[in-house]
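Reopening this one. Same input as before:
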Amino acid sequence: MEAMRDSDVIDGLSIRYLKIFGIWKIINDYRTTGNKNMILKIQVIVTVMLTVPSILSQCLALLVIEVDIQKATILNFHALPALHALARHLVFWFNIDSICRLYNLMRKDFLEKTVNDIEREKVEFIYRKFSREINTTCLVVFIVINIAGSFILIFPGISVDYILYHTGSMSAVTTGRKKLSTGWYPLPMDTSPCYEIVVLYEGILVTWTASSIIVFMCLYYQLLMCLHAQFAMTVSHVSTLKIDYKYEKNNIESSFTNHQVYSRLYRILQDHQKLLSYAAELRSVYNPLVTMILGVGMSVLVIGVFQFLFGQTGDLVFVGRAFLYVLYQSVEVSMFCFGSLFVQTASSDLQFAIYSSDWYKADVKFRKAVQMMMIRAKNGETLTAIRMYPVNAETIMAILQFTYTVATLMSRFVE
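Same output, byte for byte:
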C-alpha cells in the first residue's frame, strides 16, 4: 500500500484530528512499511496502564466493600468509558492491517474507473456534501465528550466516605473529601497522600480516556460513512446508464452504443465488487467494536435511567454527570446504528438505480449483467453485532426497550 496524501482524501473531509493525535502518521507508516510505529506502541501502552487498574479495581470492589444495587451501579458507572477506550485501542492494534487498507475508502479516486470528465463536477459536489455531514457529526461528538470530560474534572462530586463506608443514597453522605469518579481502589483513599494520588490518577485517566474516545470514535465513523458515500456514488453512476433513442434507427450505431454502455457497466460492476469486498472486511473488523459499543451503551443507559428514576441521589452534580454520560452514549450508539442504516440503504438503492437506467433498451448481455448486480444488492450491507445480528435503526428501539425493562426490574428489587 502507498501512503495517503492530503490531496488524495475526499474533498472537504477533515483529517485534522487524525494528525493532531498522530493517527494519520501511524496509518501512513504502516501502509508504507507494514510495521506499527512508536507512536501507536506508546498510545497502547499508556492506555493499558491507565485503564486496566481502574477496570480491575471496580470489579474487585464488589467483593471487598459493602454494596447494594444502587451503589453497585454507581461503582461501575465510570469504569465503562475506560473499558470503551481500551477496546478501541485493541481493535485498532489487532486490525491495523485491515483498517489501513480500508482507508482507501477515503480516497476521492476510489471509483475512478467509472468517473468521466462530464460527471467529475457532479461527483465532487456529492463528495463535498457527504464530507460536510461527516464533519458535522464528528464536531458534535467532540463537543459532547469534551463537555462531559470537563464537567467531571471541574466538579469532583463523589464522596470518598460513601465509596468506602456507606450504601444507599449517595446524597445522604455529606462527609469525606470529593474525588472525580466513583472508582474504588485498594488504597486508603480517605488519607493523604493516597487521596491526592487517586485524584491525580483519575484526572489523567479522564483526560486520556476522553481524548481516545473522541479520536477513535470519529476514525471508525468516518470510514463507515465513506463506505456509504462510495455506495451512493455507485448508485449515481448506474442511474446515468442511458441509451439515446436516435441510435435505435441505425443498427450499426445502436450496436456501438450498446457496446459503450456495457463497457461502462462492466467498470461499474468491478467497482461494485470491490465495494462489496471492502464492506465485508469493514463488517468483520467492526464486529467486536460494535458489539462492545452496544453492550456498554445498554449498560450506561440502564444505570443512568435507574439513577434518574430510582436512585434518589438528590445530588445535582451526579445527576449532571449521569445525564452527560447517557447523552454521550446515546450519540455514539446512534452514530453507528444510523451509519449502518445509511450504508444498507445506499447499497440496496442500487436496485432502483438499475431499474431507472435504460436496461430495457439494451441487449441481453447488458440485462443479464444488471440482473446479477440487483441480486447482489438485494439485502444491502450492514454492520453486525455478535457476528449475526444486523445493526440499524431497529437496534436503537430494541436497546431502549431493553433499558426500560431492566430499569423497571431493578426498581422492584429496590422496593
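So the earlier flakiness isn't reproducible anymore. For the record, Residues 216 and 244 are 48 Å apart (CA to CA).
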